[in-house]
Amino acid sequence: EKGGHKHFMAKEIAEQPTVLGEAIEHYITADGNAITLPDAGIDFTKFDRITMVACGTAYLACLTAKYWFEQVARLPVEVDVASEFRYREPPIPARTLALFVSQSGETADTLAALRYCQGKADMIVSVVNVPESSIARESDLALPILAGTEIGVASTKAFTCQLAVMATLALKAATDKGALDDQTLATHLATLRTLPGLLSLAINTGPEVKAIARKLAEAQDVLFLGRGAMFPLALEGALKLKEISYIHAEGYASGELKHGPIALIDKSMPVVVMAPRDALFDKTVSNMQEVMARGGKVLLISDSAGIREAGQGAWETLAMPSVDALFAPILYAVPAQLLAYHTAIAKGTDVDQPRNLAKSVTVE
Ligand code: M6R
């Protein structure tokens, strides 16, 4: 049942190239040049804003997607955790699309937030892994992420498939809004299609990550830093690590370092810097150097060009294949997952059934 893997989490990490490929292809037309959504789809010209609501890792997928919708489609996005959204009872302006993301489709707070939006938002769309779930059934349109059953409590393949579906949605929004010409759309779609292969390469770094994780397992606290769309990935890296290894971890936007967390830097706290060589790379590197100048131990996760340029003096480096900056978060989810997985193994914790956690939180 674990397909030769020791844990469901390992199996689910390994399945990502396949399921991600299926999710991407599902939303692209056969000629590879356009996006196709089920039923009547979504006409983004009808909306001026999107409000996204979810919990946990699904919330972090929304935070990542916000960068895509705003950057590519110039469509403003608000993102909330469901437990805050539902009790804050925010006003929902006209021309709002409400989007709910949930692997299980049964998370109590997310479902309550969806019900709050019924009759207020112009359209309710969900991005779910379980098509028969309550959240799917109560939406105007449910978009499957096609990740297949996810058993490990720590969400892995659901996260990357959620990202893939929302990336195609952002491209659809950009096309509807006239913000993207056919040629650029085709380029983006071709890039998306390279991701499953890149994820395989990232998964192959397992043995290297294992060696790093043996050292990481000795830490009491770990800080994750990222900038731009890598910021939500820093949050996801921290969430994964604390869930299954029980090491206290925090994710921060790199630029926030000097506004507080830099006070924590010392020789005993590893700082994981997730920094593909993109337009913001130099800024992140300068934050990283601030950490190193204070004796902090940096694990730099970048592509080989980034590591060549900025890896000197780092405690550890981990090379990812180079990837188009826009969709880098989908690739960098893999080292975040592998780091948590191997650290938990090194600590001997229960990877698939971490203490105090349930796979689906159906009570608030
Ligand atoms: O089923 P959902 O996607 O609605 O679940 C949301 C969270 O409970 C879930 O992502 C949780 O944070 C995971 N354990 C993260 O690995």
Q: Within the largest sheet, what's the order of strands?
A: 2-1-3-4-5
Provide the low-confidence segments as ranges. none
Main β sheet profile: 5 strands, parallel
**Helix/strand class:** alpha/beta
CA-based shape: globular
Q: Determine the strand fraction and express it as a percent band.
A: 15-25%
Arithmetic mean of pLDDT: 97
Structure description:
Its EC number is 2.6.1.16. Catalyzes the first step in hexosamine metabolism, converting fructose-6P into glucosamine-6P using glutamine as a nitrogen source. Its main location: cytoplasm. One of its GO terms (molecular function) is carbohydrate derivative binding. By secondary structure, this protein is an alpha/beta fold. The chain contains 13 helices and 10 strands. A 5-stranded parallel beta sheet has the order 2-1-3-4-5, sandwiched between helices. Strands 7-6-8-9-10 form a 5-stranded parallel beta sheet, sandwiched between helices. α11 links the parallel β8 and β9. α9 crosses α13. It is globular and about 55 Å long. The protein starts with 7 loop residues before the first helix and ends in a 17-residue tail after the last helix. The model has no long low-confidence stretch (mean pLDDT 97). The structure holds 5-amino-5-deoxy-1-O-phosphono-D-mannitol. 5-amino-5-deoxy-1-O-phosphono-D-mannitol (M6R) binds next to α3.
